[in-house]
Fold this sequence. Notes:
465 residues, alpha/beta, Rossmann fold, Dihydrodipicolinate Reductase, domain 2, 10-stranded mixed sheet, 16 strands, globular, TAT_signal_bac_arc, Gfo/Idh/MocA-like_OxRdtase_N, Tat (Twin-arginine translocation) pathway signal sequence
Amino acid sequence: MKNHQTRRTFIKQTAITATGAALGSRVIASPFSGSILGSNEKIRMGFIGVGNRGSQLLNLFMQNKDCEVAALCDIYEPYLTRDRGAVSPRYLETMNSQIPKMGENFPRPPKIYKDYRELLDDKDIDAVCIATPDHWHALQTVHAIEAGKDIYVEKPLTQTIYEGRKMVEAEASGKQIVAVGLNRRGSASYQRLAAEISGGKLGKVTVARAARVSNMFPNGIGKLNPETPPKDFNWDMWLGPRAYRDYQYNIAPYMFRWWQDYSSQMGNWGVHYMDVIRWMVGETAPVSISAHGGKYVLDHDGDIPDTMQVTFEFASGMIISFAIYEASSGGAIPQGEIELRGTKATVYASERGYSIVPARAGQFQRWDKLTEAEEYVQKDNLLSDGSSGGSTGALIRNFLDCVKNREAPLCTLEDGHRSTSFAHLANIALATGERLQWDADAERFVNSKAANEMLHYEYRKPWKL
C-alpha cells in the first residue's frame, strides 16, 4: 500500500452483497466488488474528542486487532498527550471519575491534532470516532462525510432536529458508513427480545415506560462565576457554533450535560430509552407530545429541569411515558430499565436480560393466561477475541465489520436521528407549555409557530452547516 488512495480503494473493493442478520440491514452502494478485507488489514481510526466518553470508546476500539489508533484530536492538551498528571487539579477535585485514566499503550504513537478539520484532511485516516459534546456532532459528521471518512458518532446525535436531517442528507450524497453509538442496539438481550415482541409474545403494546433517576439534591453542579479557562483548554473551539460566553468550571469539560445550549438529560439518557423502546415496538415518531416539569429543587447554575414528565402518543394507538427525576432516588421500573405493557403480557427489560409476566384477566374476562412467562439472563456480549465489551463493544465491532463489508450498521444515521428527535420534541414541548402535534414526514409542528422556531438555532460565525 504505497499511498492513501491505494489503501482507501482496497478497503472499498472489499464490498460484497450479503444479507445482514439485523432487521433492516442494507448494503452501501459501491462501484467495486471483491473478497472480504483480510483479517490482518487494519482500519486506521482517528478519534475526535478523547475526554470521558471518547476515552471509553478509544479503549473499546483498541480491543479489536483490526483497528489501529492513527490519530487523536481534542481541544484540551492533557487529553492529547494522555497525561493525567497535567489535568487541572480543579477538574480532578470536582469530577475525578469523569476524567479519563489515560496512559494507554499505543503500538505506534498516534498523530496529534488540535483542530478536527486537520485530522479530516489526513489522507491516511480511514474512519473517525466522534465523541465531542452534542452541539459539535452535526458539523463534524457532515465534514467527515465530505472528507470521505467512515464514521462512528456518539449519541445523542444532534442538538437540533434540523441538524439530524442535514446529516442524513449528507450521508445520502456519499458512500460512507455512518454508525450511531446508541449502544443498546448492540445488546444481545434486546436483539432477542425484539424478535419475541415482533412475534406477538406481548400482544398489542399500548404503554411503554422508562425513567432516568439521579438524586442531585441539594447542590447539583454548583454555582460558579465566569473565569479564565486552563491555559491548555481551547474554550473558543469548545463553543464552536454556539454563541460566545465566558468560561465556567461547571460547564466544561463534563458538566455541559446540564446546560440546554449544549445538551440535556433528555438527550443524554432519554435518547437511550426512546431508541430501544421504538425499536422494540417498531415505531418511528410520535404524532403528539406533551411535557411537564422544571427546576423544582436544585439551586444551581444548570438550566435544564431536575423533574420532568413527558408523554409521546403514536398514531398506532400507543403512548410512551418518560421521566427525569434528578431530585429523588429509588427505582422507577420494578425490574430493569424499560417496561412494555401488552394485552398478553408485560415485559421488564435491560441489557442484562428481561422478564415476561403474563397478563391477568380483568373485569368480565374468563381466560387464564394468553402467553407463557419467561425469564432471560444475558451474559456479557463477547468481542471477536473473546473479551467482554458489552453492548457498546458489540456496536463498535459491528461498525468495523461494516467498514469492510459495506453493510448498514446496527444503528444507522436515520435511526439515530429519529431516536434523538424524541429528546428535542420533549424539550420543545416543555419550553412551549403546549401539547404539540408533530408531522414526522415534514418534520414540522402543525399547531405551533413557537415550537417550529426551536427546530434549529443560528450558528456563530464562521460555522455553518
